[in-house]
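FAQ
Q: What does a multi-component entry look like?
A: The components come first, one per line:
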Amino acid sequence: MSLLAVGTIAYDDIETPYASRQHVFGGSAMYFSVAASFFGPVSLVGVVGEDVREADLAFLRTRGIDTAGVEIQPGKTFRWGGRYATDWNTRTTLFTELNVLEHFAPKLTAAQRTARFLFLANAKPRVQHAALDQVERPEFVMADTMNLWIDIDRPDLLRLLRRIDAVVLNEEEARQLTGEKNLLKAAAAVLGLGPRFVILKKGEHGAFLIGNDVHFSIPAYPVDEVLDPTGAGDCFAGGFMGYLAAEGRASPATLRKAMLMGTCTASYCVEGFGVEALARLDRDSIPERYDQLLSIVTV
Amino acid sequence: MSLLAVGTIAYDDIETPYASRQHVFGGSAMYFSVAASFFGPVSLVGVVGEDVREADLAFLRTRGIDTAGVEIQPGKTFRWGGRYATDWNTRTTLFTELNVLEHFAPKLTAAQRTARFLFLANAKPRVQHAALDQVERPEFVMADTMNLWIDIDRPDLLRLLRRIDAVVLNEEEARQLTGEKNLLKAAAAVLGLGPRFVILKKGEHGAFLIGNDVHFSIPAYPVDEVLDPTGAGDCFAGGFMGYLAAEGRASPATLRKAMLMGTCTASYCVEGFGVEALARLDRDSIPERYDQLLSIVTV
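Then the predicted structure of the entire assembly, as tokens:
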């Protein structure tokens, strides 16, 4: 077992300035897994309701994603609805229905407990702790979070930050977590809370990574037309950790390349609703865009 | 004569969320010249009023800037007042007093007419044309502009774009000029208007350059504390063209390095009011920050 993702699987209703779609297969751990699957095997732990479409689970399996850890529980799958403003930077949550997610308690199989690379997708910190508790000797653990948990579950989140190697945050979350407006100072303050690496996602403006011995910044891949930004951050994390897991180590050199891989997978994600743009790609697509991005950022 | 800058010299009143300063030596061509002076000699053409402080002109000369083309006219120097919002991204113009700038007609000396690298700082397009008309065989001409000229002098500006090698624009200007929201598409549309290269400045989010055979993107240098963003764009242009002029050519390789040099000079600029942070630097400061930036962006 190399790479394990734990987190939400969802059906989303998405409104963009140009189109609306209902019941789009989504969820942070689902997006992550599909993105990571371009680099090697992934195991996914999450919960869905009885309304889950078999075709969606079958799609994950065709991507080489191990779905043995996807529980099907009585009730409905977690649902989220959101609307994007015309600038894509403002997202309004229209509704959240926790459904089966409300009582989600991740249960890892024996194989999953040996995972070396672990991604704790955005979830209640208590759930993230519960997953982490079950992994025997992870080499690299990365977690995501959101404004809600920073607000209402800060002690659990701070305790989590001391247990993980890397945290991935967007600008707003970094500022909210630290009270620091300057992004670099905010990221440095997060480093002080425990993790060895902090990745700051800036959407269309790229991302940067800081750690004690690494500081790397990258612009976003220039996408001609954004159709749906949902899941882009999780696809970034999926490309990032998928590459690290395939390389088998998080060195300064692999971390830098992983930032490009994350950028490329995220850029494909936003070119379609849900994971449909990623689903259309073959495995050569990521290396092709990686080479393009490399040429754009190489001095 | 290698590098020539034509444009405004000003006294600015600046209000930031943290401090206010009055009568700060400024102006687009002045900022450009100070930034470019780190790389080699610069000649400056502009106009000031009788109120100009001799110490300010003396400062330019200590930087190796040729001020023979700075006319002193009866009346007052151009004045501008602006206020920055707490996010630094919103700037409100509080007042503009054209004063001697109103009748500015650039007159180049014989030596200045032989300039190989020419920067037409933001000015009325008619003034930019008049300067360009006087340079005999420029190798590389770059121009800046602003929303006002895009709005009221579009025909003259479009004619200018067909006469120059590169144009430097911010996001808002690129969108206004082309009607295209997507920045990469907007930059490509500007390329279609004539120049060989388009540089898009995104402030704290960096900049990118596109041309027929080059596409390069760079994040901003991460500055700990911004004191005053005034002139940052002109300092970017100054570092960019100062480096090109010193290298003597605008090849894909020198253009990429020039983008880093521009980023570094702009990053120093915002660390003080007016050019005071740049004035404190010695010549080693730019190469030092260049090396830091290179390490941050190198994959």
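Q: Is there any commentary attached?
A: Sometimes. For this entry: Residues 3-297 of chain B form a domain with the UDP-N-acetylmuramoyl-L-alanine:D-glutamate ligase fold (CATH 3.40.1190.20).
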